[in-house]
Amino acid sequence: RSVMRFIFLFIFAAISWSFAEPKAFDSLEFISPEKFQNKVIRHDRVKRICEDSTVAPNLHDFAYAAYLYYGEKWDAAYKAYDSLRGKDTLLDQSILIRMARTRLYDGELKKVNKTLDLGKRMEKDPEWQQQASRIRMETFLANKKNRPKKKADSLESFLKKYPQGPESDEFRYRRAVLLENAKKWNLAQKAYLRVLSDYSEFGDSAFIAIRRIRETHPSDESIGEKITYANRICFKGMNKECLTLIDSIFILDSLKAP
User: Fold this and answer.
1) 232 vs 197: CA distance, rounded Å
2) In 3D, which of 133, 129, 79, 134 has the Cα closest to residue 106?
3) I need a labelling partner for 120 at 20 to 30 A (CA). Which of 67, 133, 181, 191 fits?
């Protein structure tokens, strides 16, 4: 009972800190910061290096390959990076990853694995394994022949292997979307709740999706799931709905009490 009392106090505090009126749930995660960095900042930076006649030839060659990559000249970037392989063995791993990504972004999905196979001597390197696995995962997701549920299952396997990877937040959200597309409503809601509990940049979209599923395909929810959702509702300033959820949590808890 003390645990439930703590939960109540926590959620009540959320009501007190929130604004009186509900706020908009607009999210900016679909404006990719990475793409902005590539197209604007990084592209301009390497362009200046390419135009600098005082830089060393090797640096110029690497900068030019990056210039093509950030400018989304995929085929030319692939060839430029391919010509750099072996010039600096410490950079070969990054070069092959770039080469594989150019194939992926250019839609040449069948050539992605062939490119990654060029790195066989690095197969025992954990960092290479994770980066290569991520690109293979992204290639699998990009293949329109693969059904949403199959893609979601593959993402689940990847996340079990790399739960704290730099792509984990994005992949968890994409898995939830795929489960919803596959009409696996209960699984999708649980997946969105996981995204919500992580407080990632995908939280607002996950919150909207949960509301949509709860309204159109309601199902039984555990106390933990209700608490996760109620926490966000209360912080959003949706006080009436917040109090209703708190009541339902206490009712559900009382029914399970010995």
Assistant:
1) 9
2) 79
3) 67
CA dist., res. 183 & res. 201, Å (int) = 24
Model confidence band, residue 32 (pLDDT cutoffs 50, 70, 90): low
pLDDT exceeds 50 at position 71: yes
* Percent of the chain predicted with pLDDT > 90: 63
pLDDT at 5: 46
Q: Nearest 10 degrees: CA dihedral of 47, 51, 53, 58?
A: 30
Give pairs for 196-203: CB < 8 Å, separation 24+: 196/228, 196/229, 196/232, 197/228, 198/169, 198/172, 200/169, 200/172, 200/173, 201/27, 201/28, 201/29, 201/169, 202/27, 202/29, 202/169, 202/170, 202/172, 202/173, 203/27, 203/232
- The amino acid sitting at 37 is Q
pLDDT tens digits for range 8-17: 444 444 434 3
| Single pTM value for the model | 0.81
* Two structure tokens written together for 145: 């022949």
- Tell me the CA end-to-end span of the chain in Å, nearest whole number: 11
DSSP line for 55-81: S-HHHHHHHHHHHHHHTT-HHHHHHHH
